[in-house]
Design goal:
The protein is 22% helix and 27% strand. The two termini are 27 Å apart. It has 239 residues and is α/β, with parallel strands linked by helices. It has six helices and 14 strands. The C terminus is likely disordered. A hairpin with a 4-residue loop joins strand 1 and strand 2. The radius of gyration is 17 Å and the shape is globular. The protein has one domain: Metallo-beta-lactamase, Chain A, CATH 3.60.15.10. The protein has a six-stranded mixed sheet with strand order 1-2-3-4-5-6, covered by helices on one side. Strands 7-8-9-10-13-14 form a six-stranded mixed sheet.
């Protein structure tokens, strides 16, 4: 399998490109608009055909490349069914599968960071990895104080949904701020300081006391991402 983890240093965002083989079909998860040229070059060099571009949720810290990839490569754009982004081609439900040339992603509804966040499990019949967006980070978790976020729903998504995956399942988040690139479900169960050994009430208190600054890109990024990263005046395509 072809697997590439790409990083945007401005927003500390991870983007993931997956394909089963050279010359085959590919998908990309959480692409960043400013990195479009890098993605297009990599796709050409690997000789793959991008058929799906996926966002785990409506990001507040960067503008998505979903619309640009759709327009340049005619790929399908995918988000969870609760997104308010009307430009998305396909809205997936909890438990739905995305199949691409031997690769399967299982959609897992994991609200808490936002009310429409989804995670995606690689090969869900025998999980190999999970792309958690912002709900579960490496030794942390996504803030829960805007876009319908809720600390108790975050706890439920992490403990009762993601932590039900096998312990060796690799965790690939949408962000990291400390130089870590991957973790595992077992590691986060044991070592995540917000969750390990904590109760739901304790977690809720931790999340309510973070006192994080307002995201500097939020007022720009969220409206742009509701149009798949394109100006609001741009006609919306559904394919």
């Amino acid at each position: 399998m072809i697997f590439r983890q790409l990083f945007d240093s401005a927003s500390c965002t991870y983007t993931y490109l997956l394909a089963s083989r050279p010359g085959g079909e590919a998908l990309i998860i959480d692409p960043v608009k400013e990195k479009l040229d890098q993605y297009l070059q990599l796709i050409e060099e690997l000789g793959v055909e991008l058929v799906h571009a996926i966002d785990t949720h409506t990001h507040a810290d960067h503008i998505t490349a979903l619309g640009d990839l759709r327009d340049v490569l005619d790929c399908t754009t995918i988000m969870g069914e609760r997104t308010r982004a009307e430009c998305v081609t396909r809205h997936v439900r909890d438990g739905e599968r995305i199949d691409v040339d031997g690769i399967t992603l299982g959609a897992l509804y994991t609200p808490g960071h936002t009310d429409e966040s989804f995670s995606f499990v690689l090969q869900p019949d025998a999980p190999r990895a999970v792309f958690t967006g912002d709900v579960l980070l490496i030794r942390g978790s996504g803030r829960t104080d805007f876009q319908g976020g809720d600390a108790r729903r975050s706890w439920d998504s992490i403990v009762n949904r993601l932590f039900r995956l096998p312990e060796p399942t690799i965790v690939y988040p949408a962000h990291d701020y400390k130089g870590m690139s991957a973790s595992s479900i077992g590691e986060e169960q044991r070592w995540n300081p917000r969750i390990a050994g904590k109760t739901e009430d304790e977690y809720a208190r931790i999340m309510s006391s973070l006192d994080l600054p307002y995201p500097k890109m939020m007022d720009v990024a969220v409206p742009a991402n509701l149009t798949c990263g394109q100006p609001a005046s741009t006609p919306r395509r559904q394919g």
